[in-house]
Design brief:
Radius of gyration: 25 Å
Helix content: 40-55%
CATH topology of the largest domain: Rossmann fold
Number of helices: 13
Number of strands: 14
CATH class of the largest domain: Alpha Beta
Strand content: 15-25%
Structural class: alpha/beta
CATH architecture of the largest domain: 3-Layer(aba) Sandwich
Number of domains: 3
Shape: elongated
Strand order of the largest sheet: 4-3-5-6-7-13
Amino acid sequence: MNKYETLTKLLTEQITKNLQQGVTALPTEAELCTQYQVSRQTVRAALSCLRKQGIITSRQGSGSYATGLLPVPERNVIPVLVASGQEYIYPSLLSDIQNSLSAHGYQMQIYPTDNDVSVEREHLLALLQDPPRGMIVEGSKSALPNPNLDLYDKLKKEGTFLLFLHNRYNALADEICIKDDNYYGGYLLARHLIDLGHTHIAGLFKMDDLQGPERYLGIASCLRDLGYELKDRHVGWFNTADNEALRKKQDTRFLTRFIQDQLPGCSAVICYNDEAAYWLIKELSYADIRVPQDLSVVCFDNSYLSDLSKIRITTLTHRPHEMGNSVAECIMQKLRGIPVVSQEIPWEIVRKESDAPLKA
């Protein structure tokens, strides 16, 4: 091994240690010459090799910096635990994360959990065999106590950075999370309906993922602040099992019960997401309830289902690619040793055809 190859190896080891301490800048060429007792030519050859490997980048006038990548490709793979790689909102989100990561030399590997804590545990045990530097996690049934906290703790002790997506467990509330601003989103939809004259508003929420209670709280708080109330008798809850039965068997019994038990007396309803709203509108048509003439329907996510519905659904959205790019940038920054903070991505209303002013 010649001098520049030896120096390349030594610098790679030092960069790896520095990244763990949040140090990304390399010493100057002169400092490297002194530190390793080599010529400037040897230093430049080693730095050139590191640049070709993607381990460092050079900035005009300010020196060389670590990119966060390591020379072993397997160490630049980011595991992503999500409820399902096939769910209706995921293909575009995962594509955005992948595109952003791959543009900087990283790859991701999907681990679907089916929102099942037993499957989540299997994936975590497998990952502990060779702990990754960082991973993206969408919690399984995040509104409920989680039995896998011991494995997350072990991963953290192994140096794995945990970045939570959409939600995080209450017991891991200090971990970094990139999520929707669900409280504000609920508040925004409720205020929108009140501005249209609706004060008797129903809600349909998912109970076992944290987004459901957060969206419920935003809606209830808005109604309270403006002198109204989201009454318990007008609130319906469903869970992961209901959702799976809806997707796989088109089992809409929980929606039928909601229409019969919670909707009477309401002129508008806010749904947990586009999927719930899409199927609810179908069931409303069977019950001879017209949207929006008899009932205004609004929801979250702005997925393709909001446009596929016979009545295009008014929904909340983010700026294009914002969530995926924010997630990718956050984990790459952390792997470069740069401090990161949690983010709540704001919602915007996309007005379509499913809501209308309350008839006098």
